[in-house]
Automatic annotation (TrEMBL):
Pfam family, one: Pyr_redox_3
UniProt name for this protein: Thioredoxin reductase (NADPH)
Oxidoreductase keyword on record: yes
Keywords in alphabetical order: Flavoprotein, Oxidoreductase
Keyword hit for Lipid biosynthesis: no
Molecular function per GO: oxidoreductase activity
InterPro entries for the chain: Bdr, FAD/NAD-bd_sf, Ferredoxin-NADP_redctase_2
Protein's organism: Daejeonella rubra
Length: 322
């Protein structure tokens, strides 16, 4: 087989790219397989998004990340990671999806929609942005319901109902409001989330206080119809007219894929993939986890800035066993 490598990395996000850089530096053969475009999750972030982190904390491979402001934008991040991939001439296969992983003696046979690979080790760095957390209510599958928010102009002059009170929800509410949408928010808690970016939180609180954005606190969405939505709150059930529902309810790793390749998942609500936090190796020998996927449903543990080290840990482990 021509496609034989020491390491196959699943996921071409910042941490997957970092794993490729570390493997390259260690003289190991590798290939990065990404089912979408480069840093696909970042590409699907809202067009006007500004990162919570400063640019230096998003750096990989020792390449400086210079941005116009201390906190970079989505477009700056896409440019940066594209340049990093070019600088290291990473072996990166885009728009290729891993379909199966089979154990073959002391190696793995990986089948994608484009090729087969025989590899000694696998690093899973697939993130969590591909599968939205569903509301599981009637009408959720209507075309008016969006689990991803891209650009506010689309919602100008429309009645928009935003579900949630964390960063993605708040950004969507404020941006669509400022483009002329009539915005309401449905929030399970009694206040805006404390994790909301500190320079944005006062803005949304003030817009709600002045009545520019209507917020239904301690409430949940119970059903969605073609032109209306039903909300259950402290005053019982109410129905409001709306054109679009932005269900910013968070996302989760692809647990079915992890189970399919043999990784055990905890049975509690965290659904954490089993792995050794010292080596990042899973219950499957030679298969490692890197990045946010390590946290399961607890997606607020790992970020680019604190999981970059996973790449070095994994490569050192692989070298030690060579």
């Amino acid at each position: 087989m021509d496609n034989k490598y020491d390491i196959l990395i699943i996921g071409g996000g910042p941490i997957g790219l970092t794993c490729g850089i570390e493997a390259q530096a260690a003289g190991l053969s590798y290939v990065i397989i990404e089912k979408g475009c480069m840093v696909n999750s970042l590409y699907n972030y809202p067009s006007n998004m500004t990162f919570f982190s400063t640019s230096d904390k998003l750096e990989i491979g020792g390449v400086p990340f210079v941005s116009n402001n201390i906190k970079p934008t989505r477009s700056e991040a896409l440019e940066y990671y594209r340049r990093v991939a070019d600088k290291f001439d990473l072996n990166l296969n885009l728009f290729e999806k891993v379909e199966s992983v089979d154990k073959k003696s002391d190696e793995y046979l990986v089948h994608t929609n484009k090729a087969d690979y025989q590899v000694k080790n696998i690093i899973v760095s697939t993130g969590f942005y591909d599968i939205p957390n569903k509301l599981n209510i009637p009408g959720e599958d209507l075309p008016k319901v969006k689990h991803y928010y891209k650009d506010p102009h689309f919602y100008a002059k429309q009645k928009v109902l935003v579900v949630g009170a964390n960063n993605s929800s708040v950004d969507a509410a404020l941006e669509t409001y400022r483009k002329g949408a009539e915005v309401s928010m449905v929030i399970r808690e009694s206040e805006i989330g404390e994790r909301v970016k500190y320079w944005v939180r006062p803005d949304i609180i003030n817009r709600i206080k002045e009545g520019s954005i209507k917020a239904y606190f301690n409430s949940s969405l119970s059903a969605i119809n073609e032109h209306e939505a039903e909300i259950i709150g402290p005053e019982g059930k109410i129905t409001i007219a709306n054109d679009f529902v932005l269900a910013m309810t968070g996302y989760q790793p692809d647990f079915s894929f992890l189970r399919k390749i043999g990784i055990r998942i905890s049975t509690d609500e965290k659904q954490a993939p089993e792995h050794d936090p010292i080596t990042m190796e899973t219950n499957m020998k030679g298969i490692y986890l890197a990045g946010v996927v390590c946290g399961g449903m607890n997606t607020h543990i790992w970020f680019i800035e604190n999981s970059r080290v996973h790449a070095e840990i994994i490569i050192n482990k692989i070298i030690a066993e060579e």
